[in-house]
Amino acid sequence: MKHCLLSFFILLLGLQAAFAQLSFSFTPDTVEVSDYFDPNDSEYELVGYATVKNESSQAVNVKWTRILTGVPDEWEVQVCDLNLCYNQVVYSNIAPDIGANFTLTLAPGAQTNMDVHVKPRGIAGSGEVRIDISTEENPDEVFVSGTYYINALLTSSAREASGARLAVFPNPTTEYFELRGAEGVDQVVLYNIIGRQVRSFRAEPGKRYYIGDLPNGMYLASLASRKKGVLKTFRLSKRSIQP
Predict the structure, then answer these.
(1) 92: which DSSP letter?
(2) φ, ψ dihedrals at 31, nearest 5°
(3) Residues 56-99: pLDDT tens digits?
(4) Distance from C-alpha of 23 to C-alpha of 8, rounded to nearest angstrom
(5) Do residue 188 and residue 131 come from a single domain?
(6) Domain closes at, from 154, 185, 211
(7) Does 214 share its domain with 94?
(8) Structural contact between residues 23 and 56, judged by C-beta atoms closer than 8 angstroms
(9) Cα–Cα distance for residue pair 227/225, rounded to 1 Å
(10) Pick from 61, 84, 106, 233: CA 20 to 30 A from residue 201's CA?
(11) 3 φ, ψ to 5°?
(12) Residue numbers of the domain that contains 147
């Protein structure tokens, strides 16, 4: 009997130690996104980029949860991780009440993007999006959090309107993407997430850029001008959006 109790306590201590060793980093843990937008552009979006890394020595099934504070009701807020870009109604990758069961497994030292996409839908305002990181096995314990401060401002001049319209869409995409507000853009260069160039396009008005033959994942799309160099760089997600 004593031997059984001793074995039980050793097992219990081992489990506690395993949970205690779980560790994550959220980089950056504070993201500020502020931009002007044209209220007539219903597809314009602001994006906050961050990365969550498993700093533990064991594989972990990550659960993220989105919390909105002060966000206008009209705004559409999506979260994109390593697996998918989710519909705005998906507030967590593991949420039985809405049928969300999208396992996100990170090996030791592995990381996932944790990006927040906000479409103001013509409504100016500001708000806070917080992402809490826990695990499927221990969903109530928050290990780390990241906060995204979003500020969407209405344009007040032609210059601001031009800058606000510069965008890559649709994003996420499955086969093609286009440019919005691309006056002065001469070249579009696509890089994979480790910085290797995978595609280069000459920018032309109304052109659709085909990437259907590239693997699913996250890419960096740099919009460049011969005179001014790189004007802006966007993360472009090639994947499907879950309903």
Answers:
(1) B
(2) -120, 125
(3) 999 999 999 999 999 998 899 999 999 988 988 999 999 999 89
(4) 26
(5) no
(6) 154
(7) no
(8) yes
(9) 5
(10) 84
(11) -65, -40
(12) 22-154
